[in-house]
UniProtKB/TrEMBL annotation:
Transmembrane portions of the chain: none
Domain of life: Bacteria
SUPFAM superfamilies reported for this sequence: P-loop containing nucleoside triphosphate hydrolases
PROSITE patterns: UVRD_HELICASE_ATP_BIND
Domain named UvrD-like helicase ATP-binding: residues: 215-634
Record keyword Hydrolase present: yes
Keyword Nucleotide-binding among record annotations: yes
Protein name in the entry: AAA family ATPase
Length: 790
């Protein structure tokens, strides 16, 4: 027992810690007879499981044959024939993928029910040719008692058996006896209620999250099977299974509402790419592949938001006030010129005065259409005025409507008129709008940003197509897209044809014109950029129906206006108000699962309460479930973290750890960075994963110190960080992840470097499944000294 820890074990869960078994589960026999009975049970289960795999092989062979048959028909025939073949081929491929996905752990449980044949529970449902049930899908309603039955409420279950398998071999059975009156001597030989869970929790970490289908706990099962409709918030401390439960919920919802969700798709939003990598194998292992995993940074099609920026800039951009700023920035681009605009047309000069421009602008604004669509109203008004002037100039006096229409058309294609119209009311992509805004103090002032805000947000116009966009820009691009509306693909294509011409014009402009003109020229280039053209092509292709081969997730990812069937948000406390606004646009039916922990909020733009985030969209109509048991962090380590949690909020309650390991956390004072390497080397977990969590402001320095002295160590986020034996990460990068061992470096600096420093330190201290160490140069922060002090 640690100095600080105490064995706080779960409330009324059916599986408890080994040393804390409830009397019902403490029946064990250790003699030879029991060993023999156990072997007999194993052999029986092996027989059944072998039969299931034979059935699975048969179904795979049959489905493969059906798929081969369809593919052998080739690509000929009518459009209808082709489309039917495509959909059959899609259906068989999908079924085949599902049958292959369940190879590992096909069957993991058995339910013995009063007066009925046992039910075997597994990753999918199987029946024989006479439709007799062989295996029940874990998501089916009849499988529910496997996760929910307790001795107090057995739900008709007399025994719940966990089958441990390796490949196709049954290597162990592990029983919960729920109806003790029916206990036989043979039953007593295989009792070991909590073994399956503890075995799963004790395994070394591989850098990838595993599914928990065999050991879902009752409070988690309630969340997984909660109704599809409405917003469900799952609040829970670190390690309570929020992520893993959210993923199983996705699989459950797809199974239960397959048709609805297959059409509209499910989106899972995670905090960063490393995290998505960490969880990406869970759903495929449950046989579900057509789900879109994304970060907020990737939610705007065609934009890769990789650039970094200050926390201050991100916080400004995350605030709801930016809706007004973006709206003003659009207005700013609907200019009324300060002086009349002269348009040279050969021998004639036409003049656009301010009154005409203002009238055209007001008419366009009154149309209430987005900027790019309202442009046609503006253009019509201006062309009318110019046509009348031109008629006069040509000495043609009174013209009828037909003649005027011809004149308007001639003027529309005149380059000088086009240039004038583009300046007065340009077609704008969201990218152009924001690039122009952040590159100009004048525009930012007009949009309502203060001097300090302008200072934080100012960015030069990008020179190339390098990393320009940040994660916090993405909701702003989305906001701008709403206000600007689409640009007609025809216009974009025409613009592309003139790209070369415009490139030259832009270069000339760059040489001769003032700053704002330069920006304008660059924007023209952006407007004619290939990425926009490709999007337009894809858009057109989708409308022609050419995109049938895309999965729902792929189609959804390419379409900013896609409305999903369900959205799951993980680490949801980190999202800014603007990010929520963007997400809510993608889920008009508000069917959402939001998982997170308010105590772990690290982002300055993140949230301090679920009501604050959700009430504007759901008006109080959302429900909350709480997860209370920590499956990751052992008792000994959680005692350290609990002290820090009190710093986050004196009333916050740490989750109860399910395990004790007997391994005590340690703290070591060092003289300098040089000493870090040997300490890290000494903590490497053979065959497991170790993370060194460092203050963000010194990530590069500590990264170098560790990677230069520890073989195989990597610094910074990414797939390598998950796979390497040692990774050096900041708290933000380690959020949501877990490791066998954790070393937290300079906790004082982590506390001090952000207004949410206490939450950050809490997150850092709760990443370990087994070992925790703290390394510091100065004094240990007081909050750690109770458990780690001398
Ligand atoms: N019922 C269970 N059976 C086996 N393992 C479980 C179970 N529930 C949770 N776990 C394991 O506990 C660990 C923590 O789960 P998870 O990462 O989902 O927690 P979390 O609440 O999202 O944590 P955090 O808030 O710190 O990100 C994971 O390894 C997960 O697989």
């Amino acid at each position: 027992m640690s100095r600080c820890g105490s064995a706080i074990l779960g409330p009324c869960r059916h599986i408890k810690h080994k040393q804390q078994k409830s009397p019902e589960f403490q029946i064990t026999t250790n003699n030879n007879e029991a060993g023999a009975t156990r072997q007999i049970e194993l052999a029986k289960e092996q027989g059944y499981v072998t039969g299931l795999y034979e059935r699975l092989d048969l179904l795979r062979a049959r489905t493969q044959k059906q798929l081969d048959g369809v593919l052998a028909q080739g690509g000929g025939g009518t459009h209808q024939n082709r489309s039917e073949r495509d959909s059959f081929a899609g259906m068989y491929s999908e079924r085949l993928a599902r049958l292959w996905a369940v190879e590992n752990g096909l069957c993991f449980g058995r339910l013995d029910l009063t007066g009925e044949k046992p039910l075997y529970i597994g990753r999918l449902g199987l029946s024989d040719d006479d439709q007799a049930r062989l295996l029940i899908d874990w998501r089916a309603p009849v499988a529910q008692p496997f996760y929910r039955a307790t001795p107090a409420a057995p739900m008709g279950v007399t025994r719940r058996r966990h089958l441990q398998t390796r490949g196709r071999r049954v290597i162990g059975v592990d029983d919960d006896l729920l109806d003790l009156a029916r206990l036989t001597e043979a039953d007593r030989a295989t009792l070991n209620g909590e073994a399956a869970l503890l075995a799963a929790l004790d395994e070394k970490r591989t850098g990838r999250m595993r599914d928990i289908v065999a050991t879902i706990q009752a409070e988690q099962d309630r969340v997984i099977r909660s109704d599809l409709n409405g917003i469900l918030v799952v609040q829970g401390g670190p390690g309570t299974g929020k992520t893993v439960v959210a993923l199983h919920r996705a699989a459950y919802l797809l199974y239960t509402h397959r048709e609805r969700l297959a059409r509209r798709g499910v989106l899972i939003v995670g905090p960063n790419l490393t995290f998505l990598r960490y969880i990406e194998q869970v759903l495929p292992s449950l046989g579900e592949t057509d789900v879109l995993l994304s970060t907020v940074a990737e939610l705007y099609p065609g934009v890769t938001a990789k650039a970094r920026e200050s926390a201050e800039a991100a916080a400004i951009k995350g605030s709801l006030r930016m809706t007004g700023v973006v709206a003003k920035a659009v207005q700013d681009r609907q200019r009324v010129p300060l002086r009349p605009v002269d348009i040279e047309l050969g021998r004639y000069t036409l003049r656009l005065d301010q009154r005409t421009c203002e009238a055209a602008r007001n008419r366009a604004a009154r149309s209430r259409r987005p900027h790019n669509q309202a442009r046609s109203v503006f253009v019509r008004h201006i062309l009318n005025a110019l046509a009348k002037q031109a008629a006069k100039a040509l000495g043609r006096g009174m013209l009828d409507e037909g003649d005027l229409a011809d004149l308007r058309e001639d003027l529309r294609t005149e380059p000088a008129v086009k240039t004038a119209l583009n300046r007065l009311w340009p077609y704008l992509t969201p990218q152009q709008l924001l690039i122009g805004l952040f590159a100009s103090h004048e525009r930012m002032t007009y949009a309502g940003l203060s001097a300090n805000e302008r200072e934080a947000l100012f960015r030069q116009v990008p020179r190339g197509r390098g990393d320009f966009w940040t994660e916090a820009d993405v909701p702003l691009l989305d906001e701008a897209a709403e206000l600007l509306g689409d640009i007609d693909p025809g216009v974009l294509r025409a613009a592309a044809l003139h790209a070369e011409e415009e490139f030259a014009a832009a270069r000339r402009a760059e040489e001769t014109e003032r700053d704002s003109e330069l920006i304008y020229a660059r924007e023209v280039l952006e407007l004619t950029g290939m990425s926009d053209i490709m999007d337009a092509e894809r858009f057109a292709a989708r409308h022609r129906g050419d995109d049938v081969h895309l999965t729902t997730a792929e189609r959804a990812a390419a379409d900013r206006t896609w409305a999903y069937g369900h959205i799951i948000v993980d680490e949801a406390q980190e999202l800014s108000a603007m990010a929520w606004r963007m997400l809510m646009r993608r889920i008009p039916n508000r069917s959402m699962t939001i998982v997170g922990d308010i105590a772990q909020t690290g982002s300055v733009a993140g949230t301090g309460s679920w009501g604050q985030v959700l009430d504007p969209y759901a008006g109080g109509r959302w429900r909350e479930e709480t997860l209370t048991v920590n499956y990751r962090t052992p008792v000994e380590l959680m005692a350290v973290a609990a002290d820090v949690l009190r710093l986050v909020g004196p009333d916050l309650k740490a989750p109860e750890s399910v395990r004790e390991t007997g391994e005590h956390p340690w703290a070591r004072r060092i003289g300098g960075t040089r000493e870090l390497g040997p300490i890290v080397s000494g903590e490497i977990v053979e065959g497991g994963r170790l993370v060194v969590i460092v203050p963000a402001s010194r990530a590069a320095e500590f990264g170098r110190a560790v990677t230069s002295s520890v073989t195989g160590a990597v610094a910074g986020p990414g797939a390598d960080a998950l796979e390497a034996p040692v990774a050096v990460l900041t708290v933000a990068d380690a959020k949501g992840l877990e490791f066998d061992g954790v070393i937290v470096v300079e906790p004082r600096e982590i506390l001090d470097e952000s207004p949410r420093g206490a939450s950050d330190l809490y997150v850092a201290l709760t990443r370990a499944t087994r070992r925790l160490g703290v390394v510091h140069t100065g004094d240990l922060p007081a909050v750690l000294s109770r458990c780690l002090g001398e």
